[in-house]
């Protein structure tokens, strides 16, 4: 976090109101432009897909036309079993995320603050990080069978790294002047933790959580597909083996949208929480 | 407001060893043979001086003379390698409750997630009852020219205003001594002039002892009752210079006095010779 830039602003009587409205209008304007462009691209891709599928450009029995898939997607929205699958996937992913936060926070404190711990764990961490969660599915199956427990285990193993690394960075980034200030004014551990450490680490924590959440969804779907636990991933495999191609693609789209929604939810919390952060207050994106 | 028993206008003190001889001034802060090494590099090689209650002492030294290190040792933020700091008769091992520090880097010492008001209030939380705080915050903000600006966030203000807020935070803490570490090094020249006069004014108003570390010779002579000139690293005190310029000081008139020019030249020469004698590391 570099906070070396200053802006001379006219002194508003109630700073919160002008700041928020300013942030909101610029954000709305920016996302409106982006939204139009993004929607245009999506429509173009769908149109190309439709044309190519109807012209027979894809191998027979591989990709049905976009219209058929979208119609099936809309139909799925009315099917209780679909929502049950979504819930299976999302609930375990979020539970995994919670578990990740509970594990990563104390671990990051330990690694970030205690030098010997950092030095003795870095190799293990660098070794574990690149192991694809899929490779651990056999172990998960042995331990828990095709169950939510296995999913949870794989999610934690695979999705903990972004949050953990971000937290460690965040703890190390707490600025020395701030810490000196806290000590010289004898703030004590509670005020130092709640007013200095927690807000300092928050931007890193939110970024880490957001990335971890996306990965958690991906791992949840993959373990359902390969490990056979209930959820969207399992439904995708079932639909494929039943030859219900439109349904399969509809479920794939649902999985994609799920990731998008979770990401958007985190971004939505990020803005108001980090109103003070240079990236937010200067209209940047975090 | 704490009332000090004496406010010596005549603290013409020429040598650090003269401490015991001065009768009418209560010694507040003593640096005794303060040493600090970073690894094999010696920064402070026995720094020795005293600060009396009510005094405004500027510590000047060439760059690299360990001014910030010295201030941190005084504030209890850094453990000296040898010697000690004594504050109100007690050896300093951690920051004393009656001491406040204004840091050079206001953008980092003020917390951006808090308003100016909340920043000023933060150190008061352990020291003052909740009911006492608002009036006091109001008065210090008024004193530094930030009256009515408490609801702003630091990043909505100019650098000069941010440093005013940091000074207000120090004042609100009601310390016996305010340590200032090159507080105006990062603001523009005109703001610096305003802030210098601000510091002189609040020092009178709040009856404060001030230790002001700076590399700026003009600033040091203009502000101080006494200038402590440091040598280059490894650092010792090269001279204590009493500044007998009339109070209150004035940016135009004080700086026109022959005595001001003479003092300025004296400090300048000391710094220059310290630079040329500095050990090349």
UniProtKB/TrEMBL annotation, chain B:
Pfam families: ABC_tran
InterPro entries named among the record's database cross-references: AAA+_ATPase (IPR003593), ABC_transporter-like_ATP-bd (IPR003439), ABC_transporter-like_CS (IPR017871), ABC_transporter_ATP-bind (IPR050166), P-loop_NTPase (IPR027417)
Domain of life the protein comes from: Bacteria
PROSITE patterns tied to this protein: ABC_TRANSPORTER_1 (PS00211), ABC_TRANSPORTER_2 (PS50893)
Ranges of residues in domain ABC transporter: 29-257
Keywords, ordered alphabetically: ATP-binding, Nucleotide-binding, Transport
GO MF annotations in UniProt: ATP binding; ATP hydrolysis activity
PANTHER family recorded: ALIPHATIC SULFONATES IMPORT ATP-BINDING PROTEIN SSUB, TAURINE IMPORT ATP-BINDING PROTEIN-RELATED
Official protein name in the record: ABC transporter ATP-binding subunit
């Amino acid at each position: 976090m570099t906070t070396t830039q200053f802006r001379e602003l006219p002194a508003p009587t109630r700073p919160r109101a002008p700041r928020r409205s300013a942030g909101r209008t610029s954000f709305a304007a920016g996302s409106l432009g982006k939204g139009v462009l993004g929607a245009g691209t999506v429509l173009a891709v769908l149109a190309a897909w439709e044309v190519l599928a109807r012209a027979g450009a894809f191998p027979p029995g591989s990709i049905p036309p976009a219209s058929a898939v979208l119609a099936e997607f809309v139909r799925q929205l009315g099917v209780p079993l679909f929502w049950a699958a979504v819930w299976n996937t999302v609930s375990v992913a979020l539970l995994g995320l919670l578990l990740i936060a509970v594990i990563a926070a104390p671990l990051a404190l330990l690694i970030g603050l205690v030098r010997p711990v950092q030095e003795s764990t870095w190799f293990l961490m660098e070794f574990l990080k690149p192991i694809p969660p899929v490779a651990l599915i056999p172990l998960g199956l042995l331990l828990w069978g095709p169950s939510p427990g296995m999913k949870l285990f794989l999610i934690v193993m695979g999705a903990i790294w972004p949050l953990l690394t971000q937290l460690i960075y965040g703890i190390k980034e707490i600025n020395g002047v701030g810490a000196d200030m806290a000590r010289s004014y004898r703030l004590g551990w509670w005020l130092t933790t709640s007013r200095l450490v927690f807000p300092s680490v928050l931007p890193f924590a939110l970024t880490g959580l957001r990335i971890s959440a996306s990965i958690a969804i991906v791992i949840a779907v993959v373990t359902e597909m390969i490990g056979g636990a209930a959820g969207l991933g399992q439904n995708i495999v079932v639909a494929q083996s039943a030859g219900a191609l439109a349904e399969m693609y509809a479920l794939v789209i649902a999985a994609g949208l799920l990731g998008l929604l979770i990401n958007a939810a985190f971004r939505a919390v990020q803005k108001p929480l980090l109103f003070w952060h240079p990236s937010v207050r200067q209209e940047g994106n975090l | 407001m704490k009332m000090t028993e004496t406010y010596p206008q005549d603290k013409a003190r020429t040598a650090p060893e003269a401490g015991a001889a001065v009768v009418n001034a209560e010694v507040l802060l003593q640096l005794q043979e303060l040493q600090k090494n970073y690894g094999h590099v010696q920064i402070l090689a026995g720094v020795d001086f005293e600060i009396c209650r009510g005094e405004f002492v500027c510590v000047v030294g060439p760059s690299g003379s360990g001014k910030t290190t010295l201030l941190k040792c005084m504030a209890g933020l850094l453990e000296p390698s040898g010697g000690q700091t004594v504050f109100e008769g007690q050896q300093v091992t951690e920051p004393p409750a009656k001491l406040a520090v204004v840091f050079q880097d206001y953008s980092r010492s003020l917390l951006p997630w808090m308003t100016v008001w909340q920043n000023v209030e933060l150190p008061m939380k352990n020291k003052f009852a909740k009911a006492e705080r608002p009036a006091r915050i109001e008065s210090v903000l008024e004193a530094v020219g930030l009256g009515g600006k408490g609801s702003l966030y630091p990043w909505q203000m100019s650098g000069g205003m941010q440093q005013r807020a940091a000074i207000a935070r120090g004042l609100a803490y009601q310390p016996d001594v305010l340590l200032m570490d090159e507080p105006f090094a990062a603001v523009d020249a005109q703001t610096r002039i305003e802030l210098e006069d601000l510091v002189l004014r609040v020092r009178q108003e709040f009856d404060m002892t001030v230790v002001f570390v700076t590399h700026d010779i003009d600033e040091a002579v203009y502000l101080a009752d006494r200038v402590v000139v440091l040598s280059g690293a490894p650092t010792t005190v090269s001279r204590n210079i009493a500044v007998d310029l009339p109070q209150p000081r004035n940016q135009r008139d004080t700086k026109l006095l022959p005595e001001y020019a003479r003092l300025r030249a004296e400090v300048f020469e000391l710094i220059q010779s310290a630079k040329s004698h500095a050990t090349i590391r």
